[in-house]
Amino acid sequence: MIFSLVIHGTAPTSYAAHSGLNFARAVIQGGHSIARVFFYHDAVRIADGNVVLPQDEVSIAEQWREFAQAHQVELNLCIAAALRRGVLNEAEQQRYQRPSANSMPAFEVVGLGQLIEASIVADRVITFGAST
């Protein structure tokens, strides 16, 4: 079975990114695959490379990056949500003439068309909301 995941909330206000990652790991362990993971609304903040965590905290963004690399899974950021929250890749940084890009390289800034395509190719689309 092919899954696509949509993540709406991000740490520290939500466990959505953590729950989504745990689910993604279980999907792979169960012999299934993931077409892509789409980070939407506040979840795009997960890719902000300027965030510095305390030394005793594990980066959920780094965990997602490692998972995506190990299993060839796309990590997509909604472009509108990312721009609205100041998460810019190099192309958007240049386009809007901002001082620097701050999105982590593992995350690709894309349009909503990628979410629609993910919904079409997947057997199931699972959404992880912003609840705390």
Describe this structure in words.
The protein has 132 residues and is an alpha/beta fold. It has a single domain (2-128), classed as Hypothetical Protein Ychn, Chain: A, CATH 3.40.1260.10. It is 36% helix and 20% strand. The protein has five helices and five strands. Strands 4-3-2-1-5 form a five-stranded parallel beta sheet, with helices on both faces. Helix 2 links the parallel strand 2 (33-39) and strand 3. Helix 1 packs parallel to helix 2. The longest helix is centred in the N-terminal third of the chain and has 14 residues, at 16-29. The N and C termini lie far apart (29 Å).
- Using the coordinates above, name the CATH class: Alpha Beta
Our count of helices gives 5
How far is the N terminus from the C terminus? Answer: 29 Å
Q: Within the CATH hierarchy, at the fold level, what is the topology? A: Hypothetical Protein Ychn, Chain: A
Unreliable stretches: none
How would you sum up the global shape? globular
Strand order in space, largest sheet: 4-3-2-1-5
CATH arch. level architecture: 3-Layer(aba) Sandwich
Output the helix-strand order.
Answer: EHEHEHHEHE
Portion in beta strands: 15-25%
Give the helix proportion (percent range): 25-40%
Task: Return Rg in Å.
Answer: 14 Å
Largest sheet: 5 strands, parallel
Q: Mind telling me the CATH superfamily name?
A: DsrEFH-like
Structural class: alpha/beta
Count of beta strands: 5
Number of domains: 1
Q: Average the pLDDT over all residues and give the rounded result.
A: 93
